[in-house]
């Protein structure tokens, strides 16, 4: 673990071996390497600065315990702080409400909203059974009756895409009514879910290629009507710096309750997780690790911290 950063810090600290406490100069030298590691992991620049500023006072003056080198000591302090900033422990979905409990999926087009909707629907509908179930606990331990509805009326294929995923995962989707508008679909979905005794209703909203006012107003109206218990912001881990602006815009307008980070299976080092958490203050709850509907995992702050530090 931390081979990359360890090596870098090892070089920096070669001269310092055996000192009792970390001096200001030692720490600053080490934090320059940490800064580079965070930037390489695509953590947004303002978040990198914030991180360095908050970890610095913790490291200065820290005793270097006998069994480790000063470099290892800095890594431990940085790693602990990073895990804490990422939320510390796994954050559960909150579905404690009178059914149907609504989960609203928001984010940019192509971020993985529809895929993530189907993944969450599949996992909730399987309860403790099904593929990859052993990884999940909390809200996912109870088998639930789930309905999905696509509110994306702009992209012609979007509603059909969700219907196909529904068939693959065995999760029912709201029948498509041509030319129906998003708010009307929301109303019909809520009525259907109530009437047919669904526990959870997942609403997949339309995304755009960039944040725009019309989209934001539409999502806000849907949210006001559906009163979601969870509003999950879906973001692509590969988008790096952009992810921050997206997160901020959504979080400013909606009560985002959690983040789903997708494409954590790719080359991305996961820095977006730290950026998203720092900018919104909301926990990353789930990660997408592939295109298949069982490739969803809970978010473990300690695992991502190791990946970010490299
Ligand atoms: P939407 O426009 O936000 O609804 O995005 P989609 O759900 O249609 O996803 C866009 C593309 O990303 C599709 O090709 C998905 O298969 C792919 N995708 C979604 N999540 C993941 C993931 O976690 N890993 C990988 N590798 N691909 C993903």
Largest sheet: 7 strands, mixed
Low-pLDDT windows of residues: none
Question: What's the β-strand tally?
Answer: 7
Number of helices: 11
Bound molecules: guanosine-5'-diphosphate
- Spatially, the strands of the biggest sheet line up as 2-3-1-4-5-6-7
**Cα-atom Rg, whole angstroms?**
22 Å
Straight-line N-to-C gap: 7 Å
Residue-averaged pLDDT, rounded?
Answer: 90
Q: Assess the beta-strand content as a share of residues.
A: 5-15%
Enzyme class: hydrolase
Binding site for GTP: 107-114, 204-208, 262-265
Subcellular location: Cell inner membrane; Cytoplasm
EC number: 3.6.5.4
Summarize the structure.
It is built from eleven helices and seven strands. With 310 residues, the chain is an alpha/beta fold.
Q: What is the secondary structure topology, with strand pairs?
A:
Layout: H1 3-13, H2 24-40, H3 45-59, H4 70-85, E1 101-107, H5 113-126, E2 146-150, H6 158-169, H7 182-195, E3 200-204, H8 213-226, E4 230-236, H9 241-253, E5 258-262, H10 271-280, E6 284-288, E7 296-298, H11 301-309
Parallel strand pairs: 1-3, 1-4, 2-3, 4-5, 5-6
Antiparallel strand pairs: 6-7
Helix pairs in contact: 1-2, 1-4, 2-3, 3-4, 4-11, 5-6, 7-8, 9-10
This protein binds guanosine-5'-diphosphate.
């Amino acid at each position: 673990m931390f081979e990359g950063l360890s090596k870098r810090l090892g070089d920096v600290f070669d001269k310092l071996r055996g000192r009792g406490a970390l001096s200001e100069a030692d720490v600053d030298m080490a934090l320059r390497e940490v800064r580079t590691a965070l930037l390489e992991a695509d953590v947004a620049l303002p978040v990198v600065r914030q991180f360095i500023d908050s970890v610095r006072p913790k490291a200065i003056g820290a005793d270097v315990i006998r069994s480790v080198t000063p470099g290892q000591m800095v890594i431990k302090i940085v790693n602990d702080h990073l895990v804490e900033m990422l939320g510390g422990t796994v954050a559960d979905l909150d579905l404690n409400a009178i059914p149907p409990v609504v989960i609203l999926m928001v984010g940019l087009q192509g971020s993985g909203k529809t895929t993530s909707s189907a993944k969450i629907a599949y996992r909730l509908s399987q309860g403790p059974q099904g593929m990859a179930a052993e990884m999940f606990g909390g809200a996912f331990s109870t088998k639930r009756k789930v309905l999905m509805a696509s509110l994306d009326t702009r992209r012609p294929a979007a509603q059909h895409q969700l219907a196909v995923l529904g068939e693959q995962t065995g999760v029912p989707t709201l029948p498509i009514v041509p030319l129906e508008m998003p708010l009307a679909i929301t109303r019909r979905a809520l009525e259907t879910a109530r009437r047919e005794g669904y526990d959870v209703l997942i609403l997949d909203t339309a995304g755009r290629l960039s944040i725009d006012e019309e989209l934001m107003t539409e999502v806000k109206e849907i949210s006001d009507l559906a009163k979601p218990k969870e509003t999950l912001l879906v973001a692509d881990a590969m988008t790096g710096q952009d992810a921050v602006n997206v997160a901020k815009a959504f979080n400013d307008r909606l009560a985002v309750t959690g983040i789903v980070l997708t494409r954590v299976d790719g080359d991305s080092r996961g820095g977006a997780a730290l950026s998203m958490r720092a900018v919104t203050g909301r926990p990353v709850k789930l990660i997408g690790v592939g295109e298949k509907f069982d490739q969803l995992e809970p978010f473990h702050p300690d695992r991502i911290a190791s990946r970010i530090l490299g």
